[in-house]
Amino acid sequence: MKNQLKKSLYIYIFLGASLLNIAFTSGPKPKPIKKSEIAFQVEGTCTMCKDRIEQSLDKKGVYKAIYDVKSKLLTVTFDPRKLEEIQIHNMVAMVGHDTPLVTASEVVYQSLPDCCRYREGGKCEHDDF
Ligand SMILES: [Cu+2]
Questions:
Q1: For residue 27, how far is its CA from the centre of ligand 1 (angstroms)?
Q2: What is the pLDDT of residues 95-109, one digit of tens each?
Q3: How far, in Å, from the CA of 80 to the mean position of ligand 1?
Q4: Are 74 and 66 in contact (CB under 8 A)?
Q5: Which has more pLDDT, 91 or 20?
Q6: Where would you tag: which of 12, 28, 89, 113 has the fewest CB atoms within 10 A of its CB?
Q7: What residue spans define the domains of the chain?
Q8: Measured in angstroms, how far is the CA atom of residue 89 from the centroid of ligand 1?
Q9: Which helix (H) or strand (E) holds 36?
Q10: Which pLDDT score, from 0 to 100, does residue 14 have?
Q11: Above 90 in pLDDT, residue 35?
Q12: Does 35 or 126 have the greater pLDDT score?
């Protein structure tokens, strides 16, 4: 009888350890997405435009913003919990650059230096694109 008790005690310990093991190895719970990457075309002509566009996205919730003048492609890595895609388009349009979703206001656009006026096919002499 005593032996029987000892045996079931071992079984309980074994079961307990197994359960604990499962609890620790079942892996982390799925976390909310913290990073999204989008890319879209933005009108721009030169490295001044590049700086302006990238600086417009120097905001909370944006991890990285890279504008390629040649392909006119803007790639943005951001936190989707803090920002929506349309907000990113708005930030870029606010500094005078058209995106596929948001057109910059005429007033802001007119404040751009001549060579950055992409709507009139502006071309910067200091840049070779
Ligand atoms: Cu420019």
A1: 49
A2: 999 999 999 999 999
A3: 29
A4: yes
A5: 91
A6: 28
A7: 36-120
A8: 18
A9: strand 36-41
A10: 59
A11: yes
A12: 35
Output the CA 1–ligand 1 centroid distance in Å.
90
Distance 20 CA to ligand 1 centre (A): 61
**101, 57, 120, 70 alpha-carbon torsion, rounded to 10°:** -100
Handedness of CA 78, 84, 86, 92 (dihedral sign): negative
**Ligand 1 centroid from CA 79, angstroms:** 28
Q: Domain 36-120: which CATH class?
A: alpha beta
Check residues 7 and 82 and name the one with the higher pLDDT.
Answer: 82
53 Cα to the center of ligand 1, angstroms? 10
| Ligand 1 center to 51 CA (angstroms) | 9
